[in-house]
Amino acid sequence: MTSGWLAFAGTVALVVGAFNFIDGLVALFNRSYYLVGDDKIMVFNYTAWGWIWLVVGIIQIAVGGGIMAGQMWARVAGVVLAALSAIGHLAFLQAFPWWSVLTIALCVLLIYALTAPPAGARGA
Hints:
Helices cover about 70% and strands about 5% of the residues. The chain has about 120 residues and is mainly α. The strands form two sheets. A two-stranded parallel ribbon has the order 1-4. The chain is elongated and about 45 Å long. Pfam families: DUF7144 (PF23636). Keywords: Membrane, Transmembrane, Transmembrane helix.
């Protein structure tokens, strides 16, 4: 059985993964881009956040492909990573509010899209 929600979820997972990957690259290579005057966001500096977002983004892109292929492990991993990404972007709100709000909204939408279809459904 195919599900439009899973095709949508796979696409959103790829987009959120790309957003997080870009966040990581920006934090690593252009530290003055973000709006925060202090070098710390919560407990990490920009370099640590850069590596965190880079790794999370790469994993989310891989999970997006798994979601499109209809893998149940990818749906579970997608929900977990979307929740962690939303929480991480709450901490990142001070540095870049509009980007973080957009990413949090996409993560919430992704969680819904991954949990709404029945088990065994595949992306279109």
